[in-house]
UniProtKB/TrEMBL annotation:
CDD domains: PBP2_Bug27. Belongs to the UPF0065 (bug) family. Pfam families: TctC (PF03401). This is Tripartite tricarboxylate transporter substrate binding protein. InterPro entries: BUG, Bug_dom1. Gene3D superfamilies: Bordetella uptake gene, domain 1, Periplasmic binding protein-like II. It comes from the Bacteria.
Length: 328
């Protein structure tokens, strides 16, 4: 496990790239009142669930209530912008995602309203869930090689489903295009549910989806698993090979979550929050709560999380540029 963490969060020297943490402050009795955890998506979704699981455990650890504040809208940008503009006193933090901090800054660069790096203080990575490339049973492919052969036999004249423009499953498809050297078009849906429904019906041949969500459909034979998107096989389904091991060694993407505060938070408060998050996310009972719902925890130091987000930000900038995608 340590070797995996060191590989993923290898030290990265980023001159002036990481946001500044404010001067050392005496945290004193922090927190002495409830802390607001902004969730940039509506109640009921994956990010909301992650936020609520963390809020309960973190509140018990800190001895103060962590209030989940759902501020959904604009693909997560409204909540992230609200947190960026909050007072950096530790009483407003935000659960960030790959979408809010790595993809949206490039897709919505003219209207996003915050700098994904400079407007925030990194506190800790929280966890992740893998995606999986799934196909309708009628598709004559059981692995990446066969799927690519099928796509090329159609002269790229097919489309894959995605749960929304800029979503991680959408970007997984664009990364697959770029890595495999294909140019398959995509059909965006208003959520993963409608996209999955159309793939199940055979209207579109394949899609990328969060593994815990579609695993029952894979086990029942309603969908075929082609490969998971993480560098290593998932603990949730170790029998499903990775896309990387099937001839695309540079392919890697996951849906991740982490905690940020506004820029220039005092170091003492960052330390208090990071220590508490790392403590609760390494407890066996809390890890099991996350795992049973399809999420793996991976707490880090603020520096490790900041470096990881910067790498993700730079990587997705290149992918968006090469794909020609930009909403505004």
């Amino acid at each position: 496990m340590l070797r995996t963490l060191l590989k993923i969060f290898a030290p990265v020297v980023i001159g002036g790239a990481l946001p500044l943490i404010g001067p050392v402050a005496h945290a004193g009795d922090y927190p002495d009142r409830p802390v607001h955890l902004v969730v940039s998506y509506p109640a009921g979704g994956a990010t909301d669930l992650i936020g609520r699981l963390l809020a309960e455990a973190l509140g018990d650890k800190l001895g103060q209530r962590i209030v989940v504040d759902n501020r959904g809208g604009a693909s997560g940008m409204l909540g992230a912008r609200f947190a960026a503009e909050a007072k950096p006193d530790g009483y407003t933090i935000v659960i960030a995602t790959a979408t809010t901090h790595a993809v949206n800054p490039w897709l919505f660069r003219n209207t996003i309203g915050y700098d994904a790096i400079k407007s925030f203080t990194p506190i800790s990575y929280v966890g992740y869930t893998p995606l999986v490339l799934v196909a309708h049973p009628s598709v004559p492919a059981s692995n990446v090689k066969e799927l690519l052969a099928y796509i090329k036999s159609k002269n790229n004249d097919i489309s894959y489903a995605n749960g929304g423009t800029g979503s991680v499953p959408h970007m997984a498809g664009e990364l697959f295009n770029a890595t495999a050297g294909i140019k398959v078009q995509t059909v965006p849906y208003k959520g993963d549910g409608p996209a999955t429904t159309d793939v199940l019906a055979g209207h579109l041949p394949y899609m990328f989806a969060h593994l815990p969500v579609v695993l029952p459909l894979i086990r029942s034979g309603q969908l075929k698993a082609i490969g998971v998107t993480t560098p290593q096989r998932s603990e949730f389904a170790p029998d499903i090979p990775t896309i990387a091991e099937q001839g695309l060694p540079n392919y890697s993407i996951e849906t991740w979550w982490g905690i940020f505060g506004p820029a220039k938070m005092p170091k003492d408060i960052v330390f208090t929050l990071n220590t508490a998050i790392r403590d609760v996310l390494t407890k066996p009972d809390v890890k099991k709560l996350f795992f049973d719902r399809g999420y793996e925890t991976r707490p880090t130091t603020p520096e490790e999380f900041g470096a990881y987000v910067k790498k993700e930000y730079d990587r997705w900038g290149k992918i968006v540029e090469e794909s020609g995608m930009q909403v505004n």
